[in-house]
Write a structure and sequence with these properties.
The chain is mostly helical and about 250 residues long. The chain has one domain: Cytochrome Bc1 Complex, Chain C. About 70% of the residues lie in helices and about 0% in strands. The chain is built from ten helices and no strands. α4 packs antiparallel against α6 and α6 runs antiparallel to α7. The longest helix is centred in the last third of the chain and has 33 residues. The chain is globular and about 65 Å long. The chain starts with a helix and ends in a 6-residue tail after the last helix. Bound molecules: protoporphyrin IX containing FE (HEM). The site of protoporphyrin IX containing FE has 27 residues, from α4, α6, α7 and α10.
């Protein structure tokens, strides 16, 4: 046995005695084979369809939403290296606005990265909405897919909230206008209004704290929630397969 093989076996048995890799590997292989896995066959093959249903192109919309999300994560991570979440209204320009100016005017390819992030957001909101319409009009929300529909409703809400929180981050006059509408809507809500304004806008009036709050929601809280929901959503699609269109 060569040195490389010996090192591999040593490392593998070291990990296996601690993490039971072989047992878990065996278990996941068994469950893989026992599930109704439709992956290798296309839908048309599985159900012996002789015509390609004319709605089929619209079945890409879920995948397009997912692709948009991946692009947003990548471009957002790059923007995150340069963006400064400072909305202190005393300083002119605010640190947030100054960092946006830096990204747009000085950072090499900065304006391209920001534009891709901006336009992919619009693209994702549209794709998620149209995907929801496709699911509705093909009746794919029915038994047994009710839970995935509900996860989808949450994803639609969080996608829009993602867009809104990002819109506030440049802290320019558009952001300030949108934040004013948002906080007024929150404050106009009976009973929980003040609590919602504090939780989402960092107070009952707009301050520098609003930007920090939106920033943390945008780059940590929402990504964690949306990633978990997308994984659950896709796992359920994988287990249940795509709904039959007839
Ligand atoms: C981030 C947002 C979303 C992503 C990435 C996503 C992704 C996907 C993907 C890849 C599929 C496989 C079939 C297809 O592509 O059409 C799917 C199916 C499904 N989605 Fe979504 N989706 C999202 C939002 C939604 C929304 C807003 C709803 C409804 C309120 C929804 C409900 C469903 C249902 C019920 C299925 C099963 C459809 C079938 O079996 O034909 N999804 N989703």
């Amino acid at each position: 046995m060569g040195l490389a093989e010996k090192a591999f076996l040593w490392a593998f048995s070291w990990l296996d005695t601690r993490f039971r890799i072989q047992d878990y590997w065996g278990m996941s292989k068994d469950s893989y084979h026992s599930m109704h896995r439709q992956m290798p066959l296309t839908h048309a093959e599985k159900y012996k369809l002789r015509i390609i249903w004319y709605w089929y192109p619209l079945y890409c919309l879920g995948g397009i939403s997912f692709l948009a999300f991946i692009i947003l994560v990548i471009t957002g991570t790059i923007l995150g290296f340069y963006y400064v979440p400072g909305g202190d209204l005393e300083s002119d320009p605010t640190p947030a606005y100054a960092s946006m100016e830096f990204i747009m005017l000085e950072l090499p390819f900065g304006y391209i990265i920001r534009s891709i992030h901006h336009w992919t957001t619009h693209f994702m909101v549209a794709a998620v909405f149209l995907h929801m319409c496709r699911v509705y009009f093909t009746g794919a929300y029915r038994n047994p897919r009710e839970l995935n529909w509900l996860i989808g409703v949450a994803l639609m809400f969080f996608t829009i909230f993602f867009g809104y929180s990002g819109y506030l981050l440049p802290w320019d006059s558009l952001a300030f206008g949108a934040a004013t509408i948002g906080i007024n809507m929150a404050m106009a809500t009976p009973l929980i209004g003040e609590w919602v304004a504090n939780a989402m806008f960092g107070g009952t009036t707009l301050t520098g704290q609003t930007v920090v709050r939106m920033y943390f929601l945008h780059v940590f809280v929402l990504p964690v929630i949306v990633t978990a929901l997308i994984l659950a959503h896709l796992f359920i699609v994988w287990v249940q397969g795509i709904a039959e269109p007839h």
